[in-house]
Each structure stands twice: as C-alpha cells, then as structure tokens.
Fold M28 family metallopeptidase.
Amino acid sequence: MLFDDEERGLNGSHLFVHDHSFELRATRAMINLDMVGVAAQPLGVAAHEDLRALVRRVAPEARAFEDEPQSTRETFGRSLNITGRSDHAAFKPLGVRTLFLTRGLDTHYHSAGDKALSPALVTGAADLAERLAQAVRAAPWTPRVPCGITGRNCR
C-alpha cells in the first residue's frame, strides 16, 4: 500500500488508519519501507519490542535502531499523538506492531539533487521485508484486545 501526504503530517496513513481502525486491530504487523533506495546508511530496522528477536533471527546483519519515541503535543487544549516521522507511526496508537525499514536521509533529500535511487538497494530492502513478513506470519501471535481509555480492562 502506498500513502500520500506524508511530509505534511502523515495525512494519508492517518486517514487510512482512521477509516479502518477496527479491522487493523487484527494486523500482525505493519512493515514500512521509507528511504530505502539511497545509500545514506546501511539498511536498518526499527522493530516493535515483540518483533525484535524475530528481526535478529531473520536479519542479523540489519542495523537496529530506535524509532522516535512517542510523545504528545498540546494544541488548543487537545493532545495530539506525534510518533515518528514515517507512515508506520499512524498504526502505533492502535497497538499494531511495526517494522520500519530505512537507510536514513541522504544529503540530497528534498533538494534539486534528490535524483539518486539505487534499484539494487530497493530490491535488497524489499527482499528483507518479504523475509520479515513471512517470519511474522509464521510466528505465534495473539491479538491484544484494546483495554479502554482508563486502562482498567487491561490484562
């Protein structure tokens, strides 16, 4: 799936999550590939805590990194969830486990020189995403039932 309007606030992925939140609760994982066609850094994976061991087993060569921490921002008395800078962030508030694959930002990001894309790097990232998807699908998993606003029903 491709999302649009990421740069102005993850609008495409937020809209998708809003419209399909009930169905998404049964999603084993959301795998997001962003900036995988540039050689800024070695391919890295930020994984939900439940999936970190699986990533180490499937791709021990992958650079592990921590995604941006979840935070909130107050705007006119309302709290807005601000999590990460890529489309997987929209899935986190639902409890959907995420795998974020990226090579980071290169020096030409959003500039006139932003033309370099390596098909080989994209293929390598897609191959890793496929291996991770197969491993996630094969691994035992029990969906977490939402526990309400107060958390009283959490188990």
Notes: The chain has four helices and six strands.
